[in-house]
Amino acid sequence: MNIIGQVVEHKSLGEGIICNHKIKGEVSYIIVDFSGDHKEFQFPDIFKNIIKAKEENFKQHMAQLVEEKKDKDKMDELNRTLQRQKEEKHFVKDEPIVRKAKLANKKNKKSTTKSTSTRVRKKNDKTEKDHNIAFKCNFCDGGKSQEQVGYNGLCSVKTIKANIESGRGEWCKFSESPCRQYYDGDINRKELEEYCKAGRVCYESKLLKNWVAYAGYSYDKEGIGTPRRIVRAKVNQLCILTTRNPDMEESQRYIFAVFLIDDAFQGEPKDDQEGCVESRSKYRIKLSPKQAKQMLFWNYYHDKEGTEGTRWYTGLFRYMNDEMAAQILRDIAKIKKGTHDEKLADDFFKYFCNVNDIDIDSIGENNGALKR
């Protein structure tokens, strides 16, 4: 599409016309004429939240370019991060072997000390930190089947309406959201489906397709988003995906899928990039609607002081310790017995415990907020 001559609107400078488009090195720029005052902006990045296209076809074209650029930037940054962290993350391949050697050495030593729980052992560890991460996901029934809750396609009309009217859908409620545009009557269902096919509706609609969980954005009253960072999640730790149906209380929040973290990107707000965690290995499991209802999140999680109960408050994710994560995988392995996922669930549980130096026999009983 020819972008020269297109009318745009800047948040503070007002309406202008694109009068030039050029490349410097590998970076693309546009020149916008604001009534004789020419301004240069990086393209298409400026269309994320500073400049808006006026004409509808151009607006859709720019939305697609921005989404493609964001995906490319994330992958580039992930590759750079992995390259930089190769040495400090050498445990992805090497540490399990080292830990096995340590465990073997421990077994060779005579000891009368009883096994301690992971919580006690972690307190004796100099690096006591919670590196597993649980996400609070907007409910999505897209692609719902006997095998999965959804999260693999466009939501039903009922769910779109519920997410917007309840205010739970943080992204759903803003005018830039295709689902909001559909709710307001600006686009029809067929157009919304085209947005979904292009991957431009929401993260939730492709969560169990791409197996990437994003930190998202914090939005102000104007709808301007600031990318969230993920600081503590680590490779070889567990990502837990949770949700609750529109008619459920927070105490009924359930786990609908889990995966082993293969990549962890902290995010870079100055570059408009939120943090994310990703899985590429076989260690990822989704639960059927019936199975998921048995995996209540608050049976496992509690805040460190134990005073918040089952209230999530703000934020889209919580960090969890290794014992909580191991308890979740242990119970999933039990639920999956007799199903086609039985071996995968059992292997996942054992691998997680092995790579994180967890003694399976020392894992305690569930001690989440609902158990207190």
List keywords for this structure.
30% helix; alpha+beta; five-stranded antiparallel beta sheet; elongated; five-stranded mixed beta sheet; 372 residues
How big a fraction of the residues is strand? Answer: 15-25%
- Please give the number of β-strands: 15
As laid out across the biggest beta sheet, the strand order is: 4-3-2-1-5
Overall average residue pLDDT: 83
First-last Cα distance = 60 Å
What structural class should be given to the helix and strand makeup?
alpha+beta
Shape, per Cα inertia axes:
elongated
Query: How big is the Rg?
Result: 23 Å
- Number of helical segments? 10
Order of helices and strands: EEEEEHHHEHHHHEEEEEEEEHEHH
DSSP helix fraction: 25-40%
Tally of separate domains = 2
List low-pLDDT spans. 86-128
Topology:
Blueprint: E1 7-10, E2 14-24, E3 27-34, E4 37-42, E5 51-53, H1 56-84, H2 95-108, H3 118-123, E6 132-136, H4 157-166, H5 178-183, H6 189-197, H7 207-210, E7 212-214, E8 217-219, E9 225-227, E10 238-243, E11 254-260, E12 263-265, E13 276-278, E14 284-286, H8 289-292, E15 317-320, H9 322-335, H10 342-355
Parallel strand pairs: 6-10
Antiparallel strand pairs: 1-2, 1-5, 2-3, 3-4, 6-15, 7-13, 8-9, 10-11, 11-14, 12-13
